[in-house]
Amino acid sequence: MDQHMGVGAKEEDREEKRTVPEITLRPFTISDVDDFMTWATDDRVMRFSRRPTCTTKDECLTHMKDHIMPHPWCRAICIDDDGRPVGLVSVMPAPGADVHRASIGFDVAYDYWGRGVATAAVKKAASAVFEEWPLLERLDAVAEVNNTASQRVLEKAGFQREAVLKSYLVLRGESKDMIMYSLLSSNSLKVEEMNLLDSENNSRWMPGK
After folding, report:
1. Nearest-angstrom CA–CA distance, 63 and 87
2. Considering only Cβ atoms within 10 Å of each terminal Cβ, which end of the chain, N or C, has fewer?
3. Nearest of 56, 67, 55 to residue 105 by alpha carbon
4. Residue 152: Cβ within 10 Å count
5. Are strands 138-144 and 101-108 parallel, antiparallel or unpaired?
6. 116 burial class (0-12, 13-18, 19+ CB within 10 angstroms)?
7. Cβ neighbours, 10 Å, residue 135
8. At what angle do helices 188-201 and 117-132 cross, to 10 degrees?
9. pLDDT on residue 172
């Protein structure tokens, strides 16, 4: 599974206070490394991730080359104003013959928490992979029990809470309970409808001071 949910309390506290931004998803390029550093080196973002926090640009470059560039489906989350990445969303197919299942994860730079970026990106990514992978039936996601902001992101994106998994993952050297969420392809039309409503009912987001 992709186990990165880099959104914290600020997202939850401010999510309702701004209109949903216009975002695009695109493949990463190595030239995105400086933008990638803004969240990959930030412990506030990475504290809920299994991936260690990068400390240098070289570490960020290595991670991009070794993990992001060859990833089956990893996209930069870009605000349409300038096209620069402010986060990532990735979908990892289940291993082996389980082609009907995949897992989704996301990171968003701290300065963009609370603006609906993560929710919009998860909705758009879910719609895309269900269309691109016709055999896919289920998207999994897990969020640490104390990561209420990421739980809200998943729920607003249409995911259903299924269960609490005790001592499911080790994060920062500690065994953590995780909440399992899922979105089924049979419900993917609802995600598409939510995307259309976001486009029709929200004015273009402008960054605050």
Report:
1. 15
2. C
3. 67
4. 18
5. parallel
6. buried
7. 9
8. 140
9. 82
Phi, psi (deg, nearest 5) at residue 55: -120, -15
Identify the residue whose tokens are 């049979």.
Answer: 186
Reading the chain (209 residues) residue by residue, the pLDDT tens digits are: 455 665 654 444 444 455 667 899 999 999 999 999 999 999 999 999 888 999 999 999 999 999 999 999 999 999 976 789 999 999 999 999 899 999 999 999 999 999 999 999 999 999 999 999 999 999 999 999 999 999 999 999 999 999 999 999 988 889 999 999 999 998 866 556 655 555 555 443 333 32
HEC secondary structure over 110-133: HHHCCCCHHHHHHHHHHHHHHHHC
Amino acid in position 115: R
Give the β-pairing of 101-108 and 74-79: unpaired
